[in-house]
C-alpha cells in the first residue's frame, strides 16, 4: 500500500464512520438547489458526495489488500508463542523472531540490552543494516535455508558477532529466527594466542640463530683458533642463558594459567618475605650501584597467598626498579597494613620514568618500552605479565604511577 492510498484509506474509514453527516450534507445541498439558494453551497455538497462515492469505491480494495499482507504486526498478535518469550529471554544470545516478510515479531531481553529496544512490527532492515546480514536473512526468508556469517561492528566499540538465520516453525505459520552470538572475546583471545606464539618463537629464534652461527664458526674457520674460542664461548653461554630464562618464564606463565582458578591457601608474612627478596637482590643492586631501602611497620603484616609466587612478584618489581631506575641510585619499598584487612606494597624508583602511553600496556606479554634496553638488561618482556597473573590469582591489584624524569611507583594492593 503506498502513502496516498494509506491517507485515502484513513479518510474513508473516518467518513464511513460519519455517514450521517454526509447524508445531512447531501440533503442540505438538494434543498439549496431546490430553493435556488447559494450555488456555492450546492457545489460544496456535490463535491463531498463525489468524494464519498470515490472513497467508497476504493475502500473494499484497500481492505482486501490489507488482508492479503501475509505476516505483519497482525501476526504478532495472532501468533501464540506460548512460553517461548520467557524461555528466549533467559538465553544469553541476542534473538529476533521474524515473519516471512522480515517483520520483527519478537526480540529477547539480550537483543534489547545489546542493540536497544526495537519496535515490533518494523522490518529487520531498520535494525540490521550490514549488507551481508541482510543477504542471509533474505535467503533464509525466501528459501528456508540456514545461514551463518561473521559480522563486526566498529562503533561504539569493536565487536564481532556470529549471525545465524534459520526457519523455526511449521509451513503453515512460518517464523524465522535470527541469532547473534558475541564472539569478540573469543576472537581477542585467539589473536593474543597467535601473537604470543609468534613472539615467543621470535624471541627464541634470535639467540638460537646466534648460537648456531658461533658453533659453525668454531667447527670451521676457528677450529684451531684458541683466541676466537675464548671470545665466542662466553657469548654462547650468554645466549644459552637468555634462552633458558625465556623458557623458564614461559613455563612459569603456563603453570600460573593452569592454576589460575585455585585461590592460594597459605598465610604469608610480607615483612619477612620482602626482607628475603631484598637480600637475594643485593648482589644485582650492588652491581648497578643501587641501594634498596625497606620501610615496614614493626608488627607483622600478613596476607593469604602463595609464598613462592609472591617472592616472584616482588623480585620482579624490585629487580625492574633496580635495572630500569638505576640512575636514581636508590629503590624504596614501603609496606603498609590496610584496615580492616589486606596490605599495600609500593616499590619506588627515581629513574627516568615511563612515558604515559606505555603504562597501560606494560603487563602485556613481551611488551617493552625499549626492546634493546630490556635485552641489554637481560629482560624477557614477560616479568610484569607473570606479576599480573600471580596478582590476579591473589585477588590483588597492580597499579603503576610514573612521571618522566622523576621515577616510577608500582603498587600492589591485597
Ligand atoms: P623485562 O623482562 O623486559 O624487564 P617486564 O615485563 O618486567 O619485562 O617489564 C616490561 C617493560 O616495562 C620493561 O622492558 C621496561 O621497559 C618497563 N619497565 C618495567 N619496570 C620499569 C621501571 N621501574 N622503570 C622504567 N621502566 C620499567
UniProtKB/TrEMBL annotation:
Its EC number is 2.7.13.3. GO terms for cellular component: plasma membrane. GO terms for biological process: cellular response to phosphate starvation. One of its GO terms (molecular function) is phosphorelay sensor kinase activity. It is found in: Cell membrane. Residues 199-414 form the Histidine kinase domain. It catalyses: ATP + protein L-histidine = ADP + protein N-phospho-L-histidine. Coiled coil: none annotated. This is histidine kinase. It comes from Martelella mediterranea DSM 17316. The gene is phoR_1.
